[in-house]
Every structure is written in C-alpha cells, then in structure tokens.
Specification:
With 123 residues, this protein is mainly alpha-helical. It has a single domain, classed as Hyaluronidase domain-like (Orthogonal Bundle). 61% of the residues lie in helices and 3% in strands. The chain has 6 helices and 2 strands; from the N terminus they run H-H-H-H-E-E-H-H. It has a two-stranded antiparallel sheet. Helix 1 packs antiparallel against helix 2, helix 3 packs antiparallel against helix 4 and helix 4 packs antiparallel against helix 5. It is globular. It starts with a helix and ends in a 13-residue tail after the last helix. Pfam families: DUF309.
Length: 123
C-alpha cells in the first residue's frame, strides 16, 4: 500500500518526539476525511503527548483517552502500523500520568514517561 507522505512524515516526527509537528502533518490529511477515526486517534495521541510535555496533565489525559477509544477499533494492524502495540503504549501513558490537572513545566520535562518507536510494516 502507498501511504500519504504526511503519514510517513508523522511516523518520523513521532519517533523524534516532535509531537506538535505530528499534529500539523496529520491534520492536513484528516481534514479531507474527518470520519477517519484512525487518523484522528493518532492525531489525538500526539496532541496528548504534547500536552504532557508542557504539564497540562488534564489535557493529556483527555486526548490520550480519546486516542485509545478511536484506535481500538483498528487493531491489530492498520496502515502498516501495529495498532495493538500503540494501544499498549497509550495504556502505559495513561498509567504514568500523575494524579493532577497540571504540573510545572520543569517537572513535566523531568518525568519518566513511556516511549514508543513507531514502525510501518511494508510486507
């Protein structure tokens, strides 16, 4: 399957931890088909991770939870992505979020947090 260039760039930027750029990349193609909950789920995962980085835990929890809800219906593999692995990552992120609405930026940056390297299976 041939994937949109923005999707491939999203994977690259996600792996680099550039979550804001991830949002911009996927929003372009999601706007063409807003019923695509797979893209919306990936978008919201990236936005949630961005919120977490800056201490907006309430926003992170909301976005990451929505991402899990949207992506669950696409497993085990969709667009070459191991969606089940992504769901496990999201669940680990949810568990790692502190029980607060906001935390200081310095604390958010220093917080140990799960990581995931996305890969597209092209076979």
């Amino acid at each position: 399957m041939r994937y949109p260039e923005q999707y491939l760039q999203f994977i690259e930027k996600f792996n680099e931890g550039e979550y804001y750029e991830c949002h911009d990349l996927l929003e372009e193609i999601w706007m063409e088909n807003k019923s695509d909950k797979f893209l919306q789920g990936l978008l919201q995962m990236a936005v949630g991770l961005y919120h977490r980085e800056y201490g907006n835990i309430k926003g992170a929890r909301w976005m990451i939870g929505n991402a899990r809800k949207y992506l669950t219906r696409y497993g085990p593999i969709h667009w070459g992505l191991d969606v089940e692995e992504v769901i496990r990552y999201i669940e680990a992120c949810e568990s790692a979020l502190p029980d607060a609405d906001d935390i200081p930026y310095v604390e958010a940056k220093a917080m140990a947090f799960p990581s995931l390297r996305l890969r597209i299976d092209t076979s």
